[in-house]
Design brief:
Elements (H helix, E strand, L loop, with lengths): L2 E3 L2 E3 L16 E6 L3 E5 L2 E5 L2 E2 L3 E8 L1 H4 L16 E4 L4 H9 L4 E7 L4 H5 L4 E8 L6 H9 L4 E5 L12 E5 L18 E4 L8 E7 L4 E2 L5 E2 L1 E6 L3 E6 L3 E4 L4
Parallel strand pairs: 7-8, 8-9, 9-10
Antiparallel strand pairs: 1-2, 3-4, 5-12, 6-10, 7-11, 11-12, 13-14, 13-19, 14-17, 15-16, 17-18
């Protein structure tokens, strides 16, 4: 009983404790009353295109053959519990086997669209970095992740929501300070980009120029687009909506 006033009795009911996971390692730098907190952390952030709405964390395990192909059976075992595994792609059998070994999470370059519902049902976090198909990891994500083999990292495999800006992502804590992360909303010539759909999905290129107005695409749609260079001589016109800007501090 909290109070009695003018014939009215206020009774406090039993309260429930709500546990809210941050999704990454860091420290609280600000408490926002009635709303939440700001978590400050330094590290590398790799965003993907799909996640199964789970959280995961643990040391990263890198098997060279799995990185350039499917996750191999030999990479899983009694020591796999709680670890994060990296692979170009995966089969249905390995998705289920990884669950039986109680891994902490799975980072994939690509995933067959036929396996979406199976990946969705797994108890561990699954994040797809590049898109759906069978083409593996992009070269930059591959390089960054291999360089951090053995490090503890976090997976926040939320669904991509273009309205709120939420994206599935991998966070790698690093012992150095960095600039605050800002959502890249403006495209410009010279930017390094990764494609996440279409025939060039998973490839990394550079914006040569932004095309004025709306461009008529082969499929009949008109959209904002850019001319993107792949390698030395290959140039393609790509819708801006299909591009992820990659920011590198090297």
């Amino acid at each position: 009983m909290v109070s009695i006033k003018k014939g009215r009795v206020l009774i406090e009911a039993e309260s429930a404790v709500l546990t809210l996971q941050a999704g990454m390692a860091g420290k609280i730098s600000q408490v926002i009353p009635e709303r939440g907190v700001t978590v400050e952390c330094y590290g590398a952030l790799i965003q993907g295109v799909w996640g199964n709405a789970k959280l995961g964390n643990g040391p990263l395990v890198v098997d060279p053959e799995s990185v350039d192909g499917e996750l191999r059976t030999s990479t899983l075992g009694v020591t796999a519990r709680g670890t994060i595994h990296l692979a170009g792609t995966i089969s249905e059998e390995m998705l289920n086997m990884a669950a039986s070994e109680e891994i902490g999470g799975l980072i994939l370059g690509s995933l067959s669209s036929s396996l979406i519902s199976i990946a969705q049902a797994q108890p561990y976090a699954v994040i797809v970095l590049c898109g759906f198909g069978d083409y593996g990891l992009d070269e930059i994500s591959r390089r960054v992740l291999i360089a951090n083999e053995g490090h503890d990292l976090s997976i926040n495999a939320v669904k991509w929501n273009r309205l709120t800006g939420d994206r599935p992502e991998v966070y790698i804590p690093l012992p150095t300070e960095a600039d605050a992360y800002t959502e890249q909303a403006v495209y410009a010539s010279g930017q390094t980009v990764r494609l996440h759909t279409g025939s060039y999905a998973g490839r990394v290129g550079r914006i040569e120029s932004l095309l004025p107005g709306l461009t008529l695409l082969p499929g009949g749609l008109r959209a904002n687009a850019a001319r993107v260079i792949f390698g030395e001589n290959s140039r393609e016109i790509i819708p801006l909506a299909n591009l992820d800007v990659i920011l590198l501090n090297e």
